Amino acid sequence: MKETTYLEAIREALWEEMKTDESVFILGEDIGTYGGAFKITEGFLKEFGPDRVIDTPISEAAIVGAAIGAAHMGFKPVAEMQFIDFIAPAFDMIVNFAAKVRYRTGVGAGLVIRGPCGGGARAGPFHSQNVESYFANVPGLKMVAPATARDAKGLLRAAIRDPDPVLYFEHKFLYRRIKEELPTDEEILVPIGEARTHRPGNDLTLITYGAPLYKAEEAAERVAEEDGAQIEVIDLRSLRPLDIETLVESVRRTHRALIVHEAPRFGGFAGEITAQLCEEAFEWLDAPIRRVTAIDTPVPYSPPLEDYHLPQMEDIVTAARWLLSY
Amino acid sequence: MAAPNAQDLRQLYRHLYLTRALEERLERLVDQGHIAGDLCRCLGQEAIAVGSAWALEPGDWLAPSIRDLGALLVRGLEPREMLLQYMARTGSPCAGKDDANHFTDRERGLLGPIGPLGTQLCVLNGVALAFKARGERQVCMTYQGDGETRTGASHEGLAFAAALRLPMVVVIESNQWAFSTRSHREAAIDEWTDVARGYGVPAIQADGNDVIAVFEAAREAVARARSGLGLTLIVAETYRMLGHSQHDPQAYVPPEELEEWRARDPIDRFESYLLDRHETADGLARIRSVIDSRLDQAVDQALAEPLPEPETALGHVYAAPEVEPAPWTRGAPVGYPDVATSIVPTRMEPPRSL
Fold first, then answer.
1. pLDDT at residue number A58
2. Which helix H or strand E contains A158, and what residues bound it?
3. pTM for the full model?
4. How many angstroms separate the CA atoms of B193 and B19, rounded?
5. Whether A115 contacts A169, CB under 8 Å
6. Distance from the A227 Cα atom to the nearest Cα atom in chain B, whole angstroms
7. Is the pLDDT of residue B342 over 70?
8. Which has the closest alpha carbon to B53: B76, B81, B20?
């Protein structure tokens, strides 16, 4: 076993996949000489050389485009967006090219686009976003958002091996804050499309992903301590495909559902989960489904503003109590 | 690649004529209602696609833009496939999922473009990157309309190909119009060859209505790419002789310009070139008549092909598993209000609130 941070887990998955599979290569801005803005790929250039660790121009569309073409040729590219906010210039290449190419032509594009998402780092409107909902309505894409070091490693490995385009959202707030003992003698592989029950309970189902998992866990502990109710916390891990079976099973058992995410509310991913739960578990619900999300504003820079914007542990406790007393 | 011999010249002529004759049949099929979508013709521009693609070798890759049917035919596409594609039939290269030249074929090294322009260059860069990484000597060639060079994808793709010294040739088809806007109103440069300077790569100007001139330019650019010298732009001057698509009568185009360019028709010009050398009018007529009868046959065969079964719309979104119809939409086995039995076939314990 080895204590591994969330960041190291990402780095190890990349390193090990590149070691074992010569078709894996990485490309992005400042990932080579500099080792990446967050140092995820530090040392990669020296180990794997410039053909497999490619520093590119500041051209996100060109980066993703090249990843698609290389994937057509049998490579397994991992493209880094320096911040996931910068995925916007590559939107066309992702939603119109990568997502549709297998459907249109029968030729798939197995590639990974990964990058740091999320707030709490006092990074302002353009280095803090969560972009999953921009892409959620696009058939052909897969999306994962790990919250633990184990899942960060296992999902990245699964994403690299997946034959379809996978957007891999790594939460920058967790990079060095989350540590876990991970085995060194076992290949950690987490299948895409499977949620994980983080904390069992029978009184309320709390569905979340990414960094809010830790606020949810704290809230669940507080409610257990102060109210005696057991909240089941489910970490989605994969957003698309969505493990609706696990959610439905839990909600049919607890009869209450609370969805927590860090992206804004309107059109957020919680809306899709709510709709599916209404379709699949309506008769089992004892209360309306509730959402705790960011407020519908850009992510502001100043600490009190950002804290106000983001969903907080107290918000989750309040919503949970409301649901439990409904 | 050597200069074209008599055999090559005849083949070039075949492909020029085939391009035009196939499009004429496609146009007729649109008029007859056999093609559901739109058609963008390359009338008057055939020499660019045919002449440039002729400079490629087996194993090279090519990504067309809108008006490059001739390049696909040179690279082995069967007219029958193109007919099926436009007619959205089962056996089309996209199985009815997409139209026009939007298909990709790894065997023949064809990369299909998509609706948003310029993006095919960005993707073809990845193919070139693969060639380079494997130490292979293959090259890539792609096309952009003069208007298309104004897209962000074009800029990023050119910058990327240039910076990484990719084995790439980009042919700019300067047909003077970006849909209804004069191309020169879309840029503050006088010559499209100036585009290359910003990326630090060479540009070759070619008469786009002279198939031999285009071939010579492409031969030079392909040789540069193959020898590791990177990206070259070819600017081929031509004129769009029909509207942007079948829906555009191009009332905005001055008739005298069309008249002027009609006199430079690339197929007429190449016929004169061939007649001045070793071909006879009868010989060329024979070539045309063989193509015509084969095409008519292909049209009849394509018309007999079935349209796809509706539920095949579900296939190939992901490698696996296949997408299922959404509840309560086409084909999903859900009845009306007897919800207790129909919505949830694997019902668990009754809800405690009931």
1. 97
2. helix A149-161
3. 0.94
4. 27
5. yes
6. 21
7. no
8. B76
Pairwise CA distance, residues B127 & B283, whole Å: 40
Q: What DSSP state is assigned to residue B2? A: P
CA–CA min distance A85, chain B (Å): 18
The answer to whether A174 touches A150, Cβ cutoff 8 Å, is: no
Please say if the pLDDT value at position B348 is more than 50.
Answer: no
* Distance, CA of B174 to CA of B195 (rounded, Å): 12
Residue A205 burial (CB count, 10 A): 29
The mean of the pLDDT values for chain A is 98
Task: Kindly state the DSSP code that residue A91 receives in the 8-state scheme.
Answer: H
Can you tell me whether residue A220 is helix, strand or coil?
Answer: helix
Is the pLDDT at A301 greater than 50? The verdict is yes
Q: Which residue of B has its CA nearest to A141?
A: B318
Tokens of B173: 């088809």
Using an 8 Å Cβ cutoff, are A307 and A262 in contact?
A: no
Q: CA torsion sign, B221 to B103 to B237 to B214?
A: positive
> What is the number of other CB atoms lying within 10 angstroms of the CB of residue A176?
12
CA angle A207, A210, A211 (to 5 degrees): 105
The distance of Cα B86 from the centroid of its chain, to the nearest Å, equals: 13
Task: Decide if B104 and A73 are in contact by the 8 Å CB cutoff.
Answer: no
Q: Which stretches of B135-201 are assigned E, i.e. beta strand?
A: 140-145, 168-174, 177-178, 181-182
CB pairs under 8 A between A and B: 169
- Put simply, the answer to whether A92 touches B130 (Cβ < 8 Å) is no
For residues A231 and A204, what is the distance between their CA atoms, to the nearest angstrom? 5
Closest-CA residue to B47 (of B293, B273, B331, B319): B273
Residue B101 near residue B74 (C-beta atoms within 8 A): no
Pair A180, A36: CB distance under 8 Å: no
Cα A228 from chain centre: 31
For CA atoms B209, B215, B221, B225, the dihedral sign is positive
> Which ipTM did the prediction report?
0.95
**From the candidates B72, B154, B160, which should be mutated to test the interface with A, based on the most A CB atoms within 10 A?**
B160
CB B140 within 8 A of CB B157: no
The phi and psi torsions of A202 (rounded to 5 degrees) equal: -125, 5
- Cis bond upstream, residue B321 (ω within 30): yes
Rg of chain B on CA atoms, in Å = 24
Tokens of A276: 């599916």
CB atoms within 10 A of CB B74: 25
Identity of the amino acid at A201: G
Of the listed ranges A175-179, A292-296, B344-348, the one predicted with least confidence: B344-348
Please tell me the distance from the alpha carbon of residue A164 to that of residue A176, in angstroms, as a whole number: 29
| Mean of pLDDT values over A131-148 | 98
Interface of B with A in 72-101 (CB under 8 A): 93-95, 97-98
* Cis previous bond, A241, omega within 30: yes
Tell me if residue B206 falls in helix, strand or coil: strand
Residue B186 reports pLDDT greater than 60:
yes
Host H or E run for residue A205: strand A204-208
Instruction: Determine phi and psi for A69, rounding to 5 degrees.
Output: -60, -40
Amino acid in the structure at residue B57: E
